[in-house]
């Protein structure tokens, strides 16, 4: 019987539990034993693992987070990878099934160099992995951003304010762009392109001159603001990009419209919670498929989605390339500004 060690690497994403459930159920159907490893590679090195059966994964499809826990630790040094290899051999694991984003991909590539077999299921709300169109957790994160914008829309309109909403997802721009588009944002700022400050001001001015005396501005975390803009609005390096944008808007437009602005950082509200239907479906598909790959003796591959089809992608350093938000989506947002 083949044995698969399943573990999570990096940040949690809604839908990971659906993937764990799928791997266990499919494994049992194919006579493959699935061993759950707690807290990523840290758990493997401290021997914190156990066989997973149907009762262990019953009722977890709708749960956020991960029942196995996760860790940001990635084996990188030779001694760390050798210790992982020893544990894989000690527990007679045919392969590791790694669930994760960029850190998971890094771990998989590092292990491949030492002949430690693994397969990778992409799970990151950032959706920035180059080898797949969608990763587990992205759709749920976008839903949270959309819902937040729906809520903030009403209070922005009531008080005639500019609401600035900060999202995760850097540097790819996917969460801010797709969430902002779905939530009716009036302007979206990401790391994927240079900020057009004059366009931002013109957009808000046109709304206040008309009947829409409020605005929703979505900004991705980590956006860099030039010293020129900081100096214009009297900002310091201790203020984040969203606060600087708010002060810039106030500096330019308060004399005309007595504009007020407020800032909301959605933070970890985007990462947790019940996974959406789409995240459950792609998690189930991908995890089931990698079990079939292991059954066929295939390793050193990631599973991905292109369009609506599953793909198998051989490990390479290109897996670590960042996938910027789709150009068409960026252009589409401008139609509604």
Give an overview of the whole structure.
- By secondary structure, the protein is α/β, with parallel strands linked by helices.
- The chain folds into two domains: 2-137 and 275-321, Rossmann fold; 142-271, Phosphofructokinase domain (Rossmann fold, 3-Layer(aba) Sandwich), CATH 3.40.50.
- It is 42% helix and 18% strand.
- It has twelve helices and eleven strands.
- It has a seven-stranded mixed beta sheet, sandwiched between helices. A four-stranded parallel beta sheet has the order 7-8-6-9, sandwiched between helices.
- A hairpin with a 2-residue loop joins strand 10 and strand 11.
- Helix 7 (174-182) packs parallel to helix 12 and helix 8 packs across helix 10.
- It is elongated, with a radius of gyration of 22 Å.
- 49% of the residues are buried.
- The mean pLDDT is 95.
- Pfam families: PFK.
- Keywords: Cytoplasm, Glycolysis, Kinase, Magnesium, Metal-binding, Transferase.
- Residues 3-294 form the Phosphofructokinase domain.
- Its cofactor is Mg(2+).
């Amino acid at each position: 019987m083949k044995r698969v060690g399943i573990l999570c690497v990096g940040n949690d994403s809604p839908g990971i539990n659906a993937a764990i459930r799928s791997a266990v159920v499919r494994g049992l159907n194919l006579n493959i034993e699935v061993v759950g490893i707690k807290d990523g590679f840290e758990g493997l090195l401290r021997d914190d693992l156990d066989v997973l059966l149907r009762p262990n994964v019953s009722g977890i499809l709708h749960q956020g987070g991960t029942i196995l826990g996760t860790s940001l630790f990635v084996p990188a040094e030779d001694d760390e990878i050798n210790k992982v290899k020893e544990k894989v051999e000690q527990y007679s694991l045919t392969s590791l099934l790694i669930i994760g984003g960029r850190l998971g991909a890094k771990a998989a590539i590092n292990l491949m160099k030492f002949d430690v077999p693994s397969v990778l299921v992409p799970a990151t709300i950032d959706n920035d992995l180059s080898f797949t169109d969608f990763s587990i957790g992205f759709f749920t994160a976008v839903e949270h951003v959309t819902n937040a914008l729906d809520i903030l829309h009403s209070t922005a309109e009531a008080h005639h304010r500019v609401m600035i909403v900060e999202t995760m997802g850097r540097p790819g721009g996917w969460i801010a762009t797709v969430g902002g588009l779905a939530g009716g944002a009036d302007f979206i700022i990401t790391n994927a392109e240079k900020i057009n400050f004059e366009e931002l001001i013109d957009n808000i001015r046109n709304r206040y001159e008309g009947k829409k005396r409020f605005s929703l501005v979505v900004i991705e975390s980590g956006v860099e603001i030039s010293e020129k803009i900081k100096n214009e609005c009297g900002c310091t390096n201790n203020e984040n990009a969203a606060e600087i944008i708010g002060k810039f808007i106030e500096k330019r437009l308060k004399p005309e419209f007595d504009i007020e602005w407020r800032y909301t950082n959605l933070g970890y509200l985007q990462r947790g919670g019940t996974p959406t239907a789409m995240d459950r479906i792609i998690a189930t598909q991908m995890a089931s498929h990698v079990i079939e790959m292991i059954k066929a003796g295939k390793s050193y591959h990631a599973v991905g989605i292109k369009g609506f089809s599953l793909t198998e992608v051989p490990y390479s350093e290109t897996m670590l390339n960042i996938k910027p938000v789709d150009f068409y989506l960026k252009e589409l947002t401008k139609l509604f500004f």
